[in-house]
Specification:
Layout lengths: L1 H16 L4 H5 L3 H22 L4 H5 L9 H24 L14 H9 L21 H21 L8 E4 L2 E4 H23 L8
Length: about 210
């Protein structure tokens, strides 16, 4: 009886102070969390699958002088994982700006579809160019990507931060921080597709 009374008093206090329901209000739903973790895991696996067993000649092959090689695609994927997450964290450290949510023009599904659509071309920023990355080898880039993606999956599984009410300006419009995480994952899918396009070139080395 005493425990029940204490429990009621605690609940009453939480309601009065406005804390009751806070986590449920600002936290991601189970569906959102599951969807993000799923795409993060799947796109990570696809990156490693796309480069498995390739020789140095295959990794460095370019279909044209101005095209990226498989290795350069991986460098870009790895640096993007870092840079996009840095953007997300910087936005989360700033005050929440839910008033900006009305400026978001895409839902989660539309964002993923746009990012994975290779007919939609965008010139990457200098900081994301393969030549400007710190990686000296494919293994170094893959290790960095693997480590960071594991950290990001762990974060997505457990975070109670208000990702939806922190909104960032991107080159193509406004996104909330949850969408930034989806963008990061679908971005690696976009460039895994590019890797597979390089491998499908008729002049791609046989070994």
């Amino acid at each position: 009886m005493l425990k029940r009374t204490k429990g009621r008093l605690l609940l009453t206090l939480l309601v009065i102070t406005g804390l009751a329901g806070t986590l449920n209000t600002i936290s991601l739903t189970k569906k959102e969390r599951k969807s993000a973790v799923s795409i993060m895991k799947d796109t990570k696996a696809d990156v490693f699958k796309s480069v498995k067993g390739l020789s140095e000649a295959q990794l460095n092959f370019k279909a044209a002088p101005d095209h990226w090689s498989v290795k350069e695609c991986v460098y870009h994927i790895a640096i993007s994982e870092k840079n996009l997450w840095d953007m997300m964290e910087a936005t989360m450290k700033a005050p929440a700006n839910p008033e900006k949510r009305s400026e978001i023009k895409m839902n989660d599904e539309q964002l993923i579809k746009m990012m994975e659509d290779r007919s939609f071309k965008v010139k990457t920023q200098e900081a994301f160019e393969p030549k400007n990355t710190p990686y000296k080898s494919l293994d170094e880039a893959l290790d960095a990507f693997k480590t960071r993606r594991a950290e990001h999956i762990k974060y997505m599984k457990s975070t109670t931060e208000d990702l939806r009410n922190h909104v960032a300006q991107m080159p193509f419009g406004m996104l909330d921080c949850y969408q930034l995480c989806l963008m990061m994952a679908s971005h690696s899918n976009r460039h895994t597709q590019q890797i597979n396009e390089v491998k499908a070139d008729p002049n791609f080395p046989k070994q």
